[in-house]
Amino acid sequence: MKKVALILVLLIGFIAGKAQNQTPAENSIIQNTAISGEWYLGFGYNDGTDINQFNLKRGYLTFKTKISDILSVRYTQDITTDTEGGDIGNVEMRLKYLYLKIDLKRNELLRNTYFEIGLVHRPWIDFEQKLTGYRVQGKMFLDRFDITTSADFGITYAGLLGGKISDQYQQKVSSDYPGRYGSFAIGVYNGGGYHALEKNNNKVIDGRFTLRPFPDAIPGVQISYAFAFGKSNVPGINADYRLNLFHLSTESRIHKLMIQYYRGTGGHDGDYLDLLGYSYKNDGFSAFGEFLIPDTKFSILGRFDRFNSHQDEKYIEDTYIGGIAYRFLENKVLLNYDQKKIGDQSVRLYEIALEINFQVR
After folding, report:
1. pTM of the complete model
2. Which fold has domain 32-360?
3. Partners of 3 in the beta sheet?
């Protein structure tokens, strides 16, 4: 943790020092750079390990620089606690995103679309995280079960459908993925994720298509389909990777509701394989709901996940999540309960978690 703090101090000090004695080009870069951070801190008790502890659940430090009217870059450090190997217990930093973004706004037909090239977003997880707003609680459904991941080496093409939803909706409900008729993302990736080396010559095709069918009458309703096609990130040719996800969501100023159904084969990193390297068939579903208590900053939330891998009972799991959240500024505090049930065995986590966000321009 001391190393992380030192790096932050040095970065801020460097930027402040450069601002005092800079050329016009340097001044332009600094003025067009935004620094932001997102930190998830927690204190919890796990009855599986019988340990209570303060911990860093996750941390992100992001630099975004606008190079020109259509070009920008993003650099995001993923800060986490090492849980294995010789460095277990250390707080370490690794890259989450490092990409060039090409905005196609000069083309009238493609003006709300863009490319990301490098270590980029994969299509599904970021979309779901923006909908729920509860990455502080833990991973999203398919990420939790290692079916897909949030970032990977490759190319993403993404954008909005039909311009943007009304400013009123963006201000009062959500400005994330604000396509009037929906949004999309599609790309080609190594497949193993931002934390893995490529282990085969296969590339994964991954995509998401979202429709907002009633942008005027019920703008909060969205219907999504996500898919992936390729091989799991393991040597050999037997480990097929297929993902099909159907998702329905609705949100307003006082509620969020969503349900999704997954069916597929294998996982992105090769967890679901038999001894010959053939992939298991999997399915499952997840339901999430949040309701804001009127005239307060409190909300209650709940989630249920069911995951079923047909060839191995150890991968049949139910997850029960519930909590109470309090919002202040752009941050939140969460009282969280998380139960994982496999067969007759259950492991429970009781936790208080803090989400901290900041941005400096």
Report:
1. 0.90
2. Porin (2.40.160)
3. none
